[in-house]
Amino acid sequence: MWSHRSGRLRAHGYNLQEQRDRWREREAALRKARREQHLVSKRLLRDSDLEEARDEFQNKPLEELEVLHLLRMSQRGTEKEKEKALISLRHSLQHPETQQTFIRLEGSIRTLIGLLTSSWASLQMEAARCLHELSHADQPNVAEACLPSTSYLLTYLSGHSADFIELCLYTLGNLAVESEAVRRQLLPQGIIPALALCIQSPHAAVLEALGYTLSQLLQANEAPKEIIPSVLDSAILPNMLRLLHPTPELGASVAVEFAWCLHYIICSQVNNPLLISRGALSTLGLLLMDLARAASGSVDTGLDLLACPVLRCFGNLLAEEGAADAGVRADFGDERIIVAMFILMEFFIQHQPSLVPECLWVLNNLTVKDPGLCTALLSLDLVAPLLQLLPISRVVRILVLTILCNIAEKGPFYCQRLWPGPLLPHLLDILTLSDSEVVGQSLELLQLLFVHQPEAAQDFLQHSGLQALEKHKEEIDLQERIQALQEVALGGSSLVPNALALP
Amino acid sequence: MQLPPGLLGRLGPGPAGSPSGSPPLPVLRHPASGAAPFRFSPLAQSLPRRHPLFEDGDVQRHAYLQDVITQVSQVPERPRVAAFGCHVAGCQQEFASLEAYEHHYRALHTHVCSVCRRSFPSAHLLDVHILEWHDSLFQLLAERQSMHQCLVEGCPDKFRSSRERKEHLVRAHRYPPDFRFDQPRKARGPSRLASGEEAMEVCPGEAPQPPLPQASELRTYSHRIPSTICFGQGATRGFKNAKKRSNQ
């Protein structure tokens, strides 16, 4: 199942340290872009022989006359000669300055479109590749210059070779993410119906490209109003859910793209109940179990690329009203999903630690209204592993404590399994921290424990719990709760009756 | 993180595994739990797209998109073949690889009109062409009702003339006014197709009624050639070309 279709990472010719430095720079740039809310990426298709052939065209920009010459050659002579000219043109279009020169030439795009729609398949392909290079450009005016070609690219989606369709799709995807102006042309031109037809294709490469293009459309700011409703109405939705699950034929890359599509749709909150009614939660839950089975092999196969969007889709759908229904949870709402989450967390600690908080968030949403899953967590002895996560980070601490609160608030039968145990030393440790949000969450947990399990209060006292609480007495946000806890522990509060009447 | 031994086994072998595990413990919430000054209440949280928790995963996703150059010709099992020619007789193209041939075939020999041999980029455009160019009753009906279908896949609108349709394409669908796959019938030069055809090639408004037997003959079979069939005669033209062929 895990034949992740390997694209090649760009060869930069840097040594390992340089590569690490470059990665850190890029990572910082990506984070900055995300925080400023303009994180946008495009995808590039290139022929394998291009990378090896270090053409002179790539390294320096062409003069206007040279570009003009290539354009003329692409319209004269034999098919082979035209093709050769187009290949050279394509190589040269990797250079941003040549791109600018090209689009400024009158009739240049028109010529490309003429070749794109000609009777020569090889010329169609080369013209499409030139357009694709232009679509990938950073400068908006270059990508927008490709707009006259979109009606043709869309037409070809419903009938052509798989390679050609794939190229058209990536080009359309790159253009779609460019600007709202571009999308205001693509949408009336029928991109959604075209994609709905194209999604029937059996080719993995086409489907991956389609998923990419769709994901670019779905990220648009105007998507919730202008795009997502028609996507939900179309044949895209059932196919998307089907394609979430990797198969030996299609590989995981296809699933990755559609998982991101689903994530954007769910976050938009346009119609999540519809997704639940179409079985999305079951699909996602069962998929997570499969991912856990693959993860237990402990080899890094890029599993996190799929797990990340799947976790997010699952977590957000779990927060919907209808998600707590027993009928909805029938397929996945048993101990296996808890097992899967822990196996995945163990895997991610090694290979992708940033996914641990996302797993914990999902666990929170799973355990909130589900006594069965809380019971499973206890009976599978997973409290101790959960506590082992506490040192990782602040966010993880808050999430772990919240999950424990979910369990403790369900009553004495649950609290009995939490205390005595490893919980006490960890809580005392947490009380030495100065982060008031983390400490506050631990106070909530203590109260739930004391209220349902009076022995816990005694135990706490005996281990110098009161002194640990003293440290935070001056914190405004914590004062009242600390005082209440101290009273409970010393037995002087009406919060805890002397005996709990049990049935 | 140290997981209890044997945990993987509790996952079961596959999707159809029956749910397992002990029944849930009884829930007995104490009325004071979470009461003021405490605030806890179990809450499933939905996170918006731009939530800080999602930052790391987003960064990884975009690094993936930017880093990976998806290789076009990368399918491992493409076999090598000696150069060969297209077997649609009259088509003289030669190929050195199966994918180049597949590309050529899909571009030129699918969605072919059996009457005039033009090939079209999609089934929809072929259907529109057959209806408007080779259906003898079309011109008649078009005088009375809107018969010209929109060329955009999925758009149900119909129009009384190709000019109205073009206006619709430009206005509603933002298509280019010179969209190359929208060939009005009048733009065709004189052609020597089947003699039966000639009657229909005449411009609407001045032609006599097409003889009925021909009409019914033309309507009893589909003009589309299934893509698995190759005709023995004549190279398929691109749709732009009006190269004459003797009729088959």
UniProtKB/TrEMBL annotation, chain A:
<keyword id="KW-0812">Transmembrane</keyword>
<dbReference type="InterPro" id="IPR016024">
    <property type="entry name" value="ARM-type_fold"/>
</dbReference>
<dbReference type="InterPro" id="IPR011989">
    <property type="entry name" value="ARM-like"/>
</dbReference>
<keyword id="KW-0472">Membrane</keyword>
<protein>
    <submittedName>
        <fullName>Transmembrane and coiled-coil domain-containing protein 6</fullName>
    </submittedName>
</protein>
<dbReference type="InterPro" id="IPR000225">
    <property type="entry name" value="Armadillo"/>
</dbReference>
TrEMBL record, chain B:
<feature type="domain" description="C2H2-type">
    <location>
        <begin position="113"/>
        <end position="134"/>
    </location>
</feature>
<feature type="region of interest" description="Disordered">
    <location>
        <begin position="1"/>
        <end position="28"/>
    </location>
</feature>
<feature type="domain" description="C2H2-type">
    <location>
        <begin position="86"/>
        <end position="109"/>
    </location>
</feature>
<protein>
    <submittedName>
        <fullName>Zinc finger protein 511-like</fullName>
    </submittedName>
</protein>
<dbReference type="InterPro" id="IPR039258">
    <property type="entry name" value="ZNF511"/>
</dbReference>
<feature type="region of interest" description="Disordered">
    <location>
        <begin position="180"/>
        <end position="218"/>
    </location>
</feature>
<dbReference type="InterPro" id="IPR013087">
    <property type="entry name" value="Znf_C2H2_type"/>
</dbReference>
